[in-house]
């Protein structure tokens, strides 16, 4: 059999240029475990744990023998076998020419790092990160990749590596944002290309990430390098008659969400709107936790060829949720020596956009007035805005609303964290869990993090805890990320009549209701109730599951998580509710609506 084996990316076996069907998931786990330790013994006990964790069947040893027998037929070599039995386990025999991980090491040691790095097709053993035995091997390979990559990058920078080196450094740094040597190399490459302001921005991003994720500060070496950049003199001003310099624009995006799941149709439609149809403004809307930001960032990472002058990302809110001044927002997007006054900053930003074809992701917009000054007035740059409300005052070329996942997508996201085998063993309970989490990416991710910690808790038991919980929102928290606080912020920013309506809707016995039921619980006439409900619709607090022709036949729905929070508000309401006063016949009076 003339075969090649690959683990530097998804598991693959190629025979004569064609991929080989590797059989069942468990059979693939056995093969991945053997390949990850090629030419070394993998014990029966290790394989049992990889396949069944702490609950192996009585037939575990026999099952492994069946899987190995099937694999031997797939990967046999002439009259012999690549898989041999040795006391206590199995060994997969492979040469560097046959297995990419061995070839990677051989080329790296022989002084051919570029060829070695070219063997990588993605994260090592992608798809098996839920198996600790294989995950540990994948992490070892990834660490080795980083060492080789950093050595290669250092040599490239010393040899005067250009934009391609910076682009590769940026891409790898986005996957490993806390690795200091990688970040220092990125800063060095940017500085040598005359892009010092971007190098300073890299340091600031690393500093914030270290503080947030690990509670640490950058190393003294990195701090010293940063301070040396600050002490460097500013570049000389151009001659009066010289044309303005146009440096290569930055590509400063958050790293691509590693657990991004589903949204295939949404990604395609948004890409078509930007690339095929040439829309210069797209708006992505949806409720809390629907994954608007993740979608925009995920797509932006894939549009580098279409926006060669840069892909940028800016949040319109600070860490405490307060709006950032326009000057502060623009200072993040423009070089450090750009004008600071409001009129000059606006003019500098528009000139920057007009000269480039760049993509800007504007995140968490609450009102149109925040976005308008950032939109390109001319040129070929494009903008993606994420918001909870439609921002109907903006003349967007394309609007995309995303909502909750389908059940299958939500279960797939859950499985990426807690393990596909655990899901397959009790899919019904997994579906109950993700449904209780509102089928929203944020809710599913939070509950997945808890289940990954509570490996000893059966899915059935956890499903009962969530479905029957009085305090469902207590389960949806991880570190400083909590659904309850996000809902509190969003509902707290509603116009006063809509804000006071939320706990009243929490008094409804069911989350699906009619206008008549809403008017009764709001203690208001139907005209007033309609306006209040439209405010809540605009803010993505409630939805309309189906399309009806007459207002009095509409069925409204308050989704799972807002409904849970509304019930908490109703239970703690004091003083007693007062009558909802009539509101003006206009959705945008009093206040603007929040975005999720």
UniProtKB/TrEMBL annotation:
Superkingdom of the organism of origin: Bacteria
Region feature (Disordered): 233-255
Domain spans labelled OmpR/PhoB-type: 1-94
One Pfam family recorded for the sequence: BTAD
Keyword entries, A-Z: DNA-binding, Transcription, Transcription regulation
InterPro entries: AAA_22, AfsR-DnrI-RedD_regulator, BTAD, OmpR/PhoB-type_DNA-bd, P-loop_NTPase, Sig_transdc_resp-reg_C-effctor, TPR-like_helical_dom_sf, WH-like_DNA-bd_sf
Classification via PROSITE patterns: OMPR_PHOB (PS51755)
GO MF entries: ADP binding; DNA binding
GO BP term, pick one: regulation of DNA-templated transcription
Keyword Protease found: no
DNA-binding region location: 1-94
Family: Belongs to the AfsR/DnrI/RedD regulatory family.
Protein's recorded name: OmpR/PhoB-type domain-containing protein
Protein species of origin: Actinoallomurus iriomotensis
């Amino acid at each position: 059999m003339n075969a090649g084996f690959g683990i530097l990316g998804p598991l693959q076996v190629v025979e004569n240029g064609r991929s080989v069907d590797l059989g069942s998931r468990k059979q693939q786990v056995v093969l991945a475990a053997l390949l990850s330790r090629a030419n070394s013994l993998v014990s029966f006990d290790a394989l049992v744990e990889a396949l069944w964790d702490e609950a192996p069947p009585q037939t575990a040893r026999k099952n492994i023998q069946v899987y190995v027998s099937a694999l031997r037929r797939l990967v046999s070599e002439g009259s012999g076998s690549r898989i041999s039995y040795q006391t206590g386990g199995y060994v997969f025999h492979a040469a560097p020419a046959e297995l990419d991980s061995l070839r990677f090491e051989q080329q790296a040691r022989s002084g051919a790092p570029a060829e070695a790095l070219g063997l990588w097709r993605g994260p090592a053993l992608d798809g098996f990160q839920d198996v600790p035995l294989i995950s540990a091997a994948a992490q070892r390979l990834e660490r080795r990749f980083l060492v080789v990559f950093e050595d290669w990058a250092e040599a490239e920078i010393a040899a005067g590596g250009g934009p391609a080196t910076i682009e590769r450094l940026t891409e790898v740094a986005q996957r490993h944002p806390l690795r200091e040597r990688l970040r220092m190399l990125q800063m060095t490459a940017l500085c040598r290309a005359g892009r010092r302001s971007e190098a300073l921005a890299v340091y600031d991003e690393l500093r914030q990430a270290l503080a947030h994720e690990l509670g640490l500060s950058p190393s003294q070496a990195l701090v010293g390098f940063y301070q040396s950049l600050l002490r460097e003199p500013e570049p000389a001003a151009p001659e009066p008659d010289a044309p303005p310099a146009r440096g290569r624009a930055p590509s400063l995006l958050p790293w691509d969400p590693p657990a991004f799941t589903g949204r295939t149709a949404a990604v395609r439609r948004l890409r078509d709107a930007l690339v095929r149809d040439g829309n210069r403004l797209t708006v992505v809307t949806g409720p809390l936790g629907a994954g608007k930001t993740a979608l925009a960032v995920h797509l932006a990472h894939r549009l580098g060829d279409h926006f060669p002058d840069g892909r940028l990302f800016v949040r319109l809110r600070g860490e405490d949720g307060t709006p950032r001044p326009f000057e502060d927002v623009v200072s993040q997007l423009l070089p450090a020596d750009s004008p600071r006054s409001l009129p000059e900053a606006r003019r500098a930003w528009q000139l920057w956009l007009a000269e480039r074809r760049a993509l800007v992701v504007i995140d968490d917009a609450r009102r149109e007035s925040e976005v308008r000054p950032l939109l390109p007035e001319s040129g070929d740059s494009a903008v993606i805005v994420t918001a909870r409300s439609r921002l109907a005052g903006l003349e967007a070329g394309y609007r995309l609303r995303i909502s909750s996942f389908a059940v299958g997508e939500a279960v797939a996201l859950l499985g990426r964290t807690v393990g596909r085998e655990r899901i397959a063993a009790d899919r019904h309970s997994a579906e109950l869990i993700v449904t209780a989490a509102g089928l929203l990416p944020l809710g599913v991710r939070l509950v997945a993090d808890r289940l990954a910690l509570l490996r000893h808790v059966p899915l059935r038991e956890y499903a009962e805890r969530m479905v029957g919980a009085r305090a469902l929102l207590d389960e949806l928290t991880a570190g400083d990320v909590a659904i309850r606080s996000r809902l509190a912020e969003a509902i707290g920013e509603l116009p006063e009549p809509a804000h006071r309506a939320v706990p009243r809707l929490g008094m409804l016995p069911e989350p699906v209701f009619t206008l008549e039921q809403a008017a009764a619980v709001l203690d208001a006439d139907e005209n007033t109730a309609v306006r209040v409900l439209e405010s809540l619709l605009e803010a993505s607090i409630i939805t309309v599951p189906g399309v009806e022709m007459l207002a009095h036949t509409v069925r409204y729905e308050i989704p799972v998580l807002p409904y849970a929070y509304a019930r908490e508000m109703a239970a703690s309401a004091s003083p007693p509710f007062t009558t909802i006063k009539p509101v003006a016949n206009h959705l945008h009076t009093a206040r603007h609506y929040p975005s999720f």
